[in-house]
Design goal:
The chain has about 375 residues and is an alpha/beta fold. About 40% of the residues lie in helices and about 20% in strands. The protein has twelve helices and 14 strands. A six-stranded parallel beta sheet has the order 4-3-5-6-7-13, sandwiched between helices. Strands 9-8-10-11-12-14 form a six-stranded mixed beta sheet, with helices on both faces. Helix 1 crosses helix 2 and helix 8 runs parallel beside helix 9. It is elongated. The chain starts with a strand and ends in a 15-residue tail after the last strand. About 40% of the residues are buried.
């Protein structure tokens, strides 16, 4: 436990004495050095270094004196300093495009749990879906010499060269969720197309024929893959997708609300909507309420992600679970394995999503096939 003494700073105004401030000054410096530990323990600096690095060459008596000195002085080793000596720190940098999207905290939690269990620490960066900001993080994080990076890219065409520079420097790089087409390294993602296909086929199985979709950004591999899954299911069922039944949106509630309103105002309103993610689906549910419509009595809605909030919205949202926690956990495990010397060929992990049927989907009230 640290002990303190008071340092009173005074000033005089005329004959009056005024206390300007009172500082709590520790009896030992907050940033004790190895030299100070060696002096207190009566050993060499090299002996202290050997103790800190866990080497067995130090005698028990000397080791005890060093450890006692470390405790009394409150010494904490610099992780960055260790990284500079050992070429890498125990940090894993995670870059996500939008930390306000509830999907990403789940993935980050999975990565953090695996990292912490294995003695690594996470540094989280939010790119705001801005490739320039992401590039800045990639440049500046080199200073910290991380063991690895987990990247959900803002752009699929930029940033790869910076990532390759980390590989050349000996750091592991794993792309997660959104995988650039030109990336040939480690990656972890979901089978987005299969998840969308399953959701759409489920709606068709309920008897829906007028099915619309609000796709994610088509520049995003997950957005385009989910649209492909929707189209594949509709084509297999020989159901036509009329003009206006495919809307493109950003992965957020606001766009879901706007595009949902647009679908509901069509002359022939869809009886079901497959939304590219849960946030978009939440926006559609809000649009239905504003139009005086009910889900699923008037329009069924299915989302994608299985966010925690999908269980508490009314009605509870039928959605595709792509296991965000597992995505992050598996990405972090790759970093841990690579850092510990794994030399296997490129690891590309594809998680199979699962449909979670809840309350927002039901058979259509009345059938009306689009001709």
């Amino acid at each position: 436990m640290s002990t303190f003494h008071f340092s009173v700073q005074k000033r005089f105004i005329g004959k009056a004495e005024e206390i300007d401030r009172v500082d709590l000054v520790p009896e030992h410096p907050l940033m004790a050095t190895i030299k100070e530990i060696a002096r207190r323990a009566g050993v060499s600096i090299g002996t202290v270094s050997n103790v800190l690095n866990g080497l067995p060459t130090v005698r028990d008596a000397a080791r005890k004196r060093v450890l006692d000195a470390i405790e009394k002085l409150g010494y904490e080793p610099s992780l960055l300093g260790r990284g500079l000596r050992k070429d890498k720190t125990n940090m894993i940098v995670v870059i996500v495009p939008d930390i306000t999207n509830p999907f990403f905290p789940g993935a980050v939690r999975g990565a953090e749990d695996i990292a912490f269990q294995n003695g690594f620490r996470l540094v989280l960066c939010n790119s705001d879906n801005d490739a320039t900001k992401e590039a800045t993080y990639l440049r500046e994080m080199r200073t910290y010499r991380p063991s690895g990076l987990i990247i959900v890219p803002a752009s699929l065409s930029q940033g790869i060269e910076e990532a390759k520079a980390y590989l050349k420097a000996g750091s592991c790089v794993v792309y997660m969720d959104r995988i650039p087409t030109k990336w040939k390294g480690d990656s972890v993602t979901s089978k987005h197309e299969d998840g969308a296909y399953a959701a759409t086929k489920y709606l068709i199985g309920l008897g829906h024929e007028r099915i619309a979709t609000i796709a994610g950004p088509l520049t995003s591999p997950s957005g385009s893959a989910r649209l492909q899954g929707f189209r594949r299911a509709m084509k297999e069922a020989r159901l036509r997708v009329p003009p206006g039944y495919i809307q493109e949106a950003e992965f957020n509630k606001q766009d879901g609300h706007e595009k949902g309103k647009r679908l509901l105002k069509l002359r022939q309103r869809p009886s079901a909507v497959f939304a590219a993610n849960d946030l978009v689906a939440f926006g559609v549910l809000a649009a239905l309420r504003e139009e005086g419509l009910h889900c699923p009595a008037d329009v069924s809605v299915v989302g994608f992600d299985n966010l925690d909030d999908s269980d508490v919205v009314v009605p509870a949202l039928t959605t595709v679970d792509q296991f965000a926690y597992q995505l992050g956990a598996k990405a972090a495990q790759i970093v841990v394995d690579r850092t510990r010397g794994e030399k296997k060929s490129v690891r590309r992990i594809l998680l199979a999503p699962e449909l979670r049927i809840k309350e927002s989907s039901a058979p259509p009230a009345a059938k009306g096939r689009i001709r």
